[in-house]
Amino acid sequence: MSAIINNKFRTFNADNFISSIGTNGVYLLIGKNDAWTGASRGEYIATTPSDTVIPIPIDTDIASAKHWDDVIAAKKIITSNVSHVIKRVDWTSGTAYDAYSDDVEDQIGKDFFVFSEPSFNVYKCIDNGSGGSTKVGAPVSTVEPTGTGTDLLPTADGYVWKFMFQVQQADVLKFVTTDWLPVNSPATDNQSAQEAVETAAINGKLEYIRVTNGGTGYIDDNGNVAGATDNTITLASTASAVNGTYDNMNVYITTGTGVGQLRTISTYVGGTKIATLTSAWTTNPSPSDSVYSVAPKVTVSSGSDNGLAATARVKTITGGVIKKIDVVDKGTDYRIATATITGGAGVNAAVIPVISPIGGHGNNPVTELGGAYVMLNTRLIGNDGTDFPVNDDFRKVHLVVNPKLNGSETIASENTYNKDELQQDSGEIIYSEFRAPINRAPDSTEDIKLVVEF
Question: Residue 204 has what pLDDT?
């Protein structure tokens, strides 16, 4: 038997932990005002720790007792100071990035999204211009993504991005660090751009078809429409004079009247430049302003009752090699998909449709970007009432759930407590972190950020 723990199991546990903050008393404990020194049975393994060589905590029963012995004070953590976080990947010019793929194991471990610091926007990489998902061998990104629309955002360097969300200013001080960014879903009332993306997301959408092999010998033709009837198009005078050259290829109206229409050519007559189509135009292109592109045909297929209406075209051919596919209609509800290239006199092209995650790109940035981490932020200001001593230091930080009041079975509920107000060994210490000494002064503020991985 073999098994794995899925990433969604991790985000599920992170969700539940955040929810539990509102129904349980979760407190930040600070402790240990004496220096790290000497061995400690069951608390850490180091034999000669110091305030510059911090020991690594271990999880034992005796450690919990020692932590309680060292407690100085406690402060309650409130839900507004807790958030899913994702790793911070800053966009940097000259850096290659991974692209999203539906078949990559441990996608959230990849650098497939970026943080744009000027705008505080987060973008998912849909296409890195490499024909693959990995950043190894991919061209570097040189144009920073911008914009907050719901459509894909191509940049001049060949990358294609998807806006996911903007980090809110209210969350910057609480949750943004050099390593982490806050993320939430669904969007809140003041996250209109993220809400628009979540609303526009479509399950099983084909946003992108990756070219894995451009093949050789492919032809195309581009020009102004010379004429059209319901089921024909007359190509430009520069088009091939050889009968059948464009048979079984696609023609697409790139600009002008009838823009966006994609049709298949059944027969082509070189002498007249007239191509007969397998289906009629919805709107006949016009010689006055319509521009066409003829290229090899792309056929998108899926399993029975699986996927609807996606169409695509070859957008770019360079030296007989197919470089880029444009998805004309992205369709819906694809679970599996294949695509083939036919016509155009070439051979060996291979492409792979990349299906969006369940719900569509941007539907749930927490699960899509790896929000299996939770940050808890607690700010200690001076005495913080009267319970936090000053002119002293601390070296331990813990999370404890549902500690009890000293001499009582009552669960703690107030905002702060000093060490004498809490019952030793009560509740459950669920997190421990050892630090270098942090000195507390009457005018000091400690902004403590703990990141828990699920």
Answer: 92
